[in-house]
Specification:
8 strands; single chain; 6-stranded mixed beta sheet
């Protein structure tokens, strides 16, 4: 049986391969985009006309980072990492670790459907048919969209809306340092933690296990715990999606 170190190394190699494939796919899309440049110009003009004439209704989804630097400032820092293993990193930071047996991978077509989750923020369970996209958000997507994102192997970092500016800036710096299969979002659920991280892994099949790292306060040690949680669980969702 492979050692834990060997398993982590294998996961790291697999993640690097996925990142390379994702970059190649992005490059292909860019080349297609260059060929379609003329059409894009037309679309931009039409959108501009609609906005100037008041035709936009604002939509209902969360906005990604860039829409409001006040929520996710760009002047944060990621301190040098001191603890790499999850359990000791969480303990040093004063964070709690919890696991939840997956109950369902069923979809709902309604964002208004009431779904009771075993944790707050949620880690697994019935979810909306369309997942939230990867990214950093200044307005939170619906939790049911985020649960579907975790089913696809994403890790989510949640922060309180009124968290100190430095906390939000440092979390944004952590996201920017390694954004592959990551979501950073304000908490829309009223969680009790200052900062939390969630992920949904595939074992045991078919419904897997939800994981929650909950931190009552945020400091450099919390950053170690978040990075260890990311390395432990990211990319291992019940439904593998690049």
């Amino acid at each position: 049986m492979a050692s834990r170190k060997e398993q982590k190394e294998q996961l790291r190699r697999e993640r690097e391969q996925r990142e390379a494939e994702a970059k190649a796919a992005t490059r292909r899309k860019q080349m297609i985009g260059y060929a379609a440049g003329g059409l894009a110009v037309v679309v931009i003009v039409v959108v501009a006309v609609v906005l100037l004439t008041g035709g936009g209704d604002g939509g209902s989804g969360g906005g990604k980072s860039g829409d409001s630097s006040a929520v996710l400032p760009d002047d944060g820092e990621v301190p040098e990492r001191k603890i790499t293993d999850l359990a000791p990193a969480a303990k040093a930071a004063g964070c709690t670790l919890q696991s939840f047996k997956g109950k369902s991978r069923e979809h709902t077509d309604s964002l208004d459907e009431k779904i009771k989750y075993d944790s707050n923020p949620p880690t697994e369970g019935k979810h909306f048919a369309t997942p939230a996209e990867d990214g950093a958000y200044d307005q939170a997507p619906n939790p049911k969209e985020l649960v579907h994102t975790m089913e696809h192997g994403r890790m989510i970092i949640w922060f309180k809306k009124d968290a100190p500016e430095k906390t939000r800036a440092d979390l944004k710096a952590l996201f920017d340092e390694d954004s592959y299969q990551m979501v950073l979002t304000p908490d829309p659920t009223g969680m009790k933690y200052e900062v939390a991280a969630t992920a949904w892994t595939r074992e045991p099949t078919p419904n897997g296990t939800g994981h929650l790292l909950g931190c009552a306060k945020f400091d450099d040690k919390t950053m170690d715990a978040l990075q260890a949680f990311r390395d432990e669980y990211r990319g291992n969702g019940p439904e593998a999606v690049p």
